[in-house]
Amino acid sequence: MCRLLGVVTRKSAPIAELLAEDLDPFLELACEHKDGWGIAFRDELGAVSIVKGTDRADDSDLLRSLLKSCVTDMAVLHIRMASPHLAVSTDNTHPFGDARAAFAHNGEIRPVTSLDALISPSLLATAVGTTDSERYFLAVREQMDQGSPAAPAITRTAQSIRERAEMVVSLNCMMLTPDGLFTYAEHDPHSEVIGRRGPGYFGLSYRQEEHKTVVASQGWPQPRPQWRELPASHTAQFTTTDLQPRIH
């Protein structure tokens, strides 16, 4: 299982500055979520850029450098705790995607092959890793390539996965496009992971300030009412012009 952190702001700044007091508590989770990291951000040309590594996020000089130097108005940061049967490699490290969209997932879907029917053979052939998470993204991309906006593409894909997979621990995800940050929150409340971690482990919450909104999975204190939980089984959309979540 992984951890997710996203930010959208009206005023571009280095990612480390945008995430401010949330960054260090998030990176401290790499003591357990130690199987790599990835960041996605909207660059100065309006495209999505992705950088990732397989070292521990809290020990990565490259990550710290990028967080200080990348100036943006939207970003997603992911730290990975690999499923036991999936290799720690760059190909399996989130976020997945390209200049059009970057996708990070927190959860597990079995079997991985249950997602293949949702993806055209030509798109499936572009998969570089072996994770369920990359296939989740490709299934969303399939919807988008057919003309669907991002939010309904995520929601419909999640529904289709529920109908086909034998086991779904969580479908939590964040997707960054040039148009906004999209999140989806859903998990199986009866999963053994919940039993080990507690009921809030798969919650996604957000905190809105004057010029920015931060969205995050659990792991460090997120006091109410400053932090508000996003509704389950819905896609939330955040943009630089509308920091409040638009719920789909």
From TrEMBL:
<dbReference type="InterPro" id="IPR017932">
    <property type="entry name" value="GATase_2_dom"/>
</dbReference>
<protein>
    <submittedName>
        <fullName>Class II glutamine amidotransferase</fullName>
    </submittedName>
</protein>
<dbReference type="Pfam" id="PF13230">
    <property type="entry name" value="GATase_4"/>
</dbReference>
<dbReference type="InterPro" id="IPR026869">
    <property type="entry name" value="EgtC-like"/>
</dbReference>
<dbReference type="InterPro" id="IPR029055">
    <property type="entry name" value="Ntn_hydrolases_N"/>
</dbReference>
<keyword id="KW-0315">Glutamine amidotransferase</keyword>
<feature type="domain" description="Glutamine amidotransferase type-2">
    <location>
        <begin position="2"/>
        <end position="248"/>
    </location>
</feature>
